[in-house]
Specification:
mainly alpha, 2 domains, 434 Repressor (Amino-terminal Domain), single chain
């Protein structure tokens, strides 16, 4: 690839190479080029180009990523895209049943967030700053993770409730 063409790219070359590597990983995890082709709209030669580091102009289109990752059940490229941009990809938890236990979920959020605030407050009260030792001793990162999980579970329940109302009404058979 010419230097002029590379100069048009926003990110350094190694990030695009990481995408190529993730693409090859997705293709391998799917069982190869033919299996990947079977679940999407593009041909085997196109899929092969998407993983080829010698062809830095061809990348897998997002709809193709969506198809193959859905068939595999693993967001390999999506996770890598998030990582390359400084994010982490979290799976939304499955919501149990149609009528979520709202009181339980809200209570869980309050408890987990309260645990975070309690641990952070304890650490902060001991010297006006929160030190690395206090973060470890009080398990603040673990507390934050549990609060995030409770909030994500509540979000998933809310989204399920929203989509439940988007479903067409069941029509009674006419006699």
């Amino acid at each position: 690839m010419s230097g002029a063409a590379q100069g048009l790219r926003f990110h350094p070359a190694h990030l695009y190479a990481a995408l190529k590597s993730a693409t090859r990983g997705l293709i391998r995890a799917t069982g190869g080029l033919e299996n990947a082709r079977a679940v999407t709209r593009v041909s085997v030669p196109h899929i092969a180009r998407y993983g080829d580091v010698k062809d830095m102009t061809a990348f897998m289109p997002i709809d193709v990523v969506l198809d193959i990752e859905a068939a595999l059940g693993e967001p390999i490229i999506t996770r890598e895209l998030a990582r390359l941009q400084g994010h982490v990809l979290l799976s939304l938890p499955a919501v149990q049943g149609d009528d979520g236990p709202w009181g339980k979920e809200i209570g869980e959020i309050a408890r987990e967030c309260g645990d975070v605030l309690s641990a952070a407050g304890t650490a902060f009260a001991q010297g006006g700053v929160i030190t690395a030792d206090e973060i470890r001793t009080l398990n603040i990162v673990g507390q934050v993770n549990e609060a995030i999980e409770a909030l994500v579970a509540f979000r998933a329940a809310c989204e399920q409730e929203l989509t439940k109302n988007d479903r067409p009404p069941v029509r009674e058979p006419q006699s």
